[in-house]
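can u pls check wat happens w/ calcium ion
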Amino acid sequence: MYVLGVLSLAKILVVRLEQGIVNGLLGKYYKWSNGKPPKDFKNLELVTTRIDPQVNFVWWDEPAPGVPADRFAVEWTGYVVVDTAGYYRFYLEVDDGGVLWVRDQVLIDAWKEQPPTVYHSDIVELSAGYHPLRLRFFNNEVFAVVRLGWITPDGKAEIIPSSNLVVRKGDYIVIKGLPQNYRIEMWSGELLESAIVKGEEARINASKLEEPVDAYFKVYDGEGRLVGETPVVRNVWGGDVFQLTIT
Ligand SMILES: [Ca+2]
C-alpha cells in the first residue's frame, strides 16, 4: 500500500508583502490645445497619473502639477464596490463636460461646455461586488468642477466614498521565496492560473480577475511533485506580492 501523499506534504506559510487593492480611482490627467477634446481622448497629451481617493473637486488653478488650469481633461478608472445589492443612481456635477460608464454602459453623457450642472443617471440594478467604472471629464476655461456621487438603495445621496472605489494595482500576483523552476497554482474552488518560478519570483497572470478572490496556492517542485499548499488567503488580486516559506 502506498503512503498517502497528504502525510508528507509540507506546511507552507504565506505572508502578503504588498496589497493589490488600493482605494480610490486611477486618474490620468491630460492637456490639449484648442476646442472641445474628443470623447475618446485620442491624441491628448498625458501629463500625469495619480490615485485620487474620490472624485470631489473644485479647481480654480492647476488640478495637478504640470496640468494647466485651462484645457485639461481627466480619465478616472477603477471599480465601484457595491456592499448592498439593489437599485442605485449615479450623479455627476460637471463644469465643463463628463461621461460616466459603469460596466461599459454609458450612464451619463454630458460632453459639452457648461457652468456647473448636475446630471443623474437612470436607476441601475447592481449586484454586490465590484463593477468596472470609467469617468471622463474636461475643463475648457477656469474654473472646473467635477463630483461623482451616488444615491444608494436606502435613499442616501453622497459623493462615492473612497472605501467604495478601488484600483487594482497590477496585472500580476507575484510570489517570492520559492526555488527556481517550482510551479505554483492559484486555486479558488477551481484552478485559476499557474506560473513557474523564474529567477526570484513567479508571476501569476491576474488580469482576468475582475474582483478579489479568496484563494490558496499549491506548490510543485521542479519534477512536478506536489510539495504542499498554503492556507486560504482573503482578497487576492493583481498587484499582490506574497512571500512563501516552506517549513
Ligand atoms: Ca470651466
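The CA atoms of residues 214 and 234 lie 4 Å apart.
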